[in-house]
């Protein structure tokens, strides 16, 4: 119990360090919160007129996909922050202190989850301003939010591990090149059956697609495309994908952190 309390206290101290940076650099926080809103407006108004969505409202289809997309975009900031701390020697200084070995990565994950929850709230408010609404019950809406944050938690640990492996912010920036194809090969903006066969299959099994489809069902928003096993079992896949990613990248991240500078 003493070890657990020690780990929790140290993890919260590292979390407060990240939160203090929000106060000292509010412009960075504000830009991160508004970027998904800008993406929503661009794709909603630029592409919406060309999309024939059941019900006729592209924003109703788009928003659950945008919520999932926002959970993915956070991986870049996580990776860059972890790599920057490693490059500046801050991570090594933490490791030299009498603190719990898991405190740094756990503290980073808690701070980023708070940031993601705030960003998701801002994006949902922005969606309501352009006509999107959740037509599900309060319980269904909360379950959809929980699925989105679960996806973010999984992507977050991927970002932590990649940042620890790369170790330099310059290398972490290259991650953006990989994020965009992964984001677009999904059901965020269009139905997978409108894509070439192999590409549509990849889009259907994208973790983002499963979460987006499950959230559309829970929010009562229109879906698009032909039904398939992946869409019929989107809720199950939206839970299994993140849990699998967490099971892989949490121990990898902790082990990688413990082996730094050895």
TrEMBL record:
Subcellular location: Cell membrane; Membrane
Keyword Repeat in record: no
Bilayer disposition of the protein: Multi-pass membrane protein
GO molecular function: ABC-type transporter activity
Every ABC transmembrane type-2 domain range: 27-260
One Pfam family it belongs to: ABC2_membrane
Top-rank taxon, per record: Bacteria
Keywords on record: Antibiotic resistance, Cell membrane, Membrane, Transmembrane, Transmembrane helix, Transport
TM segment ranges: 27-47, 67-90, 110-130, 142-166, 173-191, 234-254
Keyword Transferase: no
GO cellular component, one term: ATP-binding cassette (ABC) transporter complex
Gene Ontology BP term (one): response to antibiotic
Entry's family note: Belongs to the ABC-2 integral membrane protein family.
Protein name as catalogued: Transport permease protein
Organism of provenance: Virgisporangium aurantiacum
